[in-house]
Amino acid sequence: MGQVEMVGPLDEAVGYALKRAASALRAAMDAALRPLDLTVPQYSCLEVLSQQPGLSNAELARAVFVTRQSMNLVLRGLQVRGLIARPTTAPHGRALPSQLTPAGRKQLRAASAAVRAVEQRMLTSFSAAQQDRLLRDLVACADALTPLDSDHKFGS
């Protein structure tokens, strides 16, 4: 049997550092969105719908990184609050395309500002060039681990 390579010290493991950063970002976003009575998946759903109105439950679930079942709960909650509108019957097939309401757009503006402040705080020690590089590197990491036949990229 060949020797198995160990991860090594966690403070030197890229995957661990990435997970730590993602967890810290999620906690900061949760805190920033709490006063707006939004969860991160709800905010993400509003953000995606603002850029791609009319997506189905399944399309939204993929874009927001939750299951279809979870997305159905998110959508129902947003609809009950009047932040999104969905038709009662599907115009084509079974998909109920969702769209932001005026109240949803207003809530999204406040939520986007709160999330942007979190992101700016996270990136405060990075120059603009370093921020661009970080984004490119993170996209490359995700692309390297995403199966070629799947559609995980936003907007694809």
Overview of the structural elements:
The C terminus is likely disordered. The N and C termini lie far apart (about 45 Å). Helices cover about 60% and strands about 5% of the residues. With about 160 residues, it is an all-alpha fold. It is globular, with a radius of gyration of 18 Å. A two-stranded antiparallel ribbon has the order 1-2. Helix 1 crosses helix 5.
Would you summarize the structure shown here?
Helix content is 59%, strand content 3%. The chain is an all-alpha fold and 156 residues long. The chain is globular.
Fold topology:
Blueprint: H1 14-33, H2 40-51, H3 57-64, H4 68-80, E1 84-85, E2 99-100, H5 102-122, H6 128-145
Antiparallel strand pairs: 1-2
Helix pairs in contact: 1-5, 2-3, 2-5, 3-4
What features would you highlight for this structure?
156 residues, mainly alpha, two-stranded antiparallel sheet, 3% strand, globular, disordered C terminus
Adjacency order of strands in the biggest sheet: 1-2
Number of helices: 6
SSE order:
HHHHEEHH
Overall pLDDT level: 89
Number of strands: 2
Q: Tell me the radius of gyration.
A: 18 Å
Portion in strands: under 5%
> Which structural class do you get from the secondary structure elements?
mainly alpha
Q: State the separation between the terminal residues, measured CA to CA.
A: 43 Å
Helical content stands at 55-70%
Largest sheet: 2 strands, antiparallel
Overall outline: globular
The stretches of 5 or more residues where confidence is low (pLDDT under 50) are 152-156
